[in-house]
Amino acid sequence: MSNEKAVAVVTGAGRGIGRATAVRLAADGYLVVAADRDKATAEDTAAAVRAAGAAAESLELDVSDRTGVHEAFEGVRRRFGRIDAVVNNAMWIRYVPLVDVDEETVDGMLGVGLKAAIWTMQAAVPAMTAQGSGAIVNLSSPAAVRSVPGGAVYSAVKGGVSSLTLQAAGELGPLGIRVNAVLPGAVPTEGARSVVDPSGYELRKARTPVGRLGTPEDIANAIAFLCSPDAAFVNGHVLAADGGFQVT
Ligand SMILES: NC(=O)c1ccc[n+]([C@@H]2O[C@H](COP(=O)([O-])OP(=O)(O)OC[C@H]3O[C@@H](n4cnc5c(N)ncnc54)[C@H](O)[C@@H]3O)[C@@H](O)[C@H]2O)c1
Question: Are 217 and 184 in contact (CB under 8 A)?
């Protein structure tokens, strides 16, 4: 299939921030590959993009599977000829007190949250290197830099994502590939509401200087900026899109 558009792969695109990002990047003119381990929600996102007159395909993908990620990205490259942007958004989250953390929790969260970012970056490099350009955006979290009850593993994963972003920016920058991260404030998505209760959101809202919680679109806007030519000289940056939560 010949394709004139820039191509963006968004992981965890079936719902929440990933879905909003897929919709936004498609509106910006990308052909979006909406990847999620949940085939039905990925297809729902792609269908919504197409219904709005933009271009998207769904991709059933477990991002923690290294071989699967490499094969899927090679498939995207064969099919569309290029990969211009990758958004590492997928996450599986569980809050557990440190003393109770088991291997399933650690392995699961590291697999989806941190190892997957390594697999997708590896898998995108051949296409981006051939093009001499590419933008990768990883999703960090305020939990990387502040304590969250039960959030030890999540914090470790997201701290790792921020560090990985800086390292990858240095290593891939010479290839023309920019690597940045977005650090979202509190956005009450389905996934986030499974670990934060209404009183937790009241607390987060009260500590957010702009006086409200975030929306998936707030985060998608920041991601879209980092993918765009306007961010051509932005590399290795962790951009807080959090209404100022970080400064309180
Ligand atoms: N919502 C927030 O308040 C918030 C704050 C800080 C950071 N973040 C980060 O933003 C990102 C998106 O958060 P969200 O709240 O939209 O999450 P969410 O849980 O609502 O959505 C996550 C998506 O990832 C998919 N997914 C899970 N495991 C997968 C796997 N192995 N392979 C492929 N897809 C998989 C899920 O099916 C789901 O569609 C995450 O990285 C999260 O850590 C969110």
Answer: no
